Amino acid sequence: MEFNTSKCTVLHIGSGNRQFPLVRPLVEYRTPAWSPHYNKDKVLLEKIQHRFTRMIPGFSQLDYMTRLKRLNLWTLEERRNRADLIELFKLYKGLSGIKLESMFEPSANNRTRGHSLKLRKHRSHLDLRKYFFSERVVNWWNDLDEDTVSATTINMFKSRLQRLRQIKISFYTDT
Fold it and tell me: Does pTM surpass 0.90?
């Protein structure tokens, strides 16, 4: 299998002649297929970004969260959870080959809080089902506000998710 360069984004970090080209594959595309749920796996994945941000000149002495904030980056866990929400939004808008009804069931509970498009979370005893895409994304989707869910385009939805993260900083983390 050949390396697909069209699926990569090149970021230039640094300034002047000390720029570091970074090739970041668009792993977010496959996030709904696999997302680690064990803390040890999340820590191992996060170490990759942790190590890379330390190699940037002037950033090695800063703690990890400060480096992320200055570089305007998200943790890998936040990016995976955000990608799940974007994928669910695509299903909701019919922009995916899969129908929303085949994976999700609308909630019968008509409470006044939140938005009107809440999804039902099923009880699951096995990890295989509990951490599957259609179950792990339901809580975050149901926590969104009406304004975010009623976005008409993917870019509008993404910008509203960004605004939500600025308001509730730990919205995308599992802990």
Answer: no
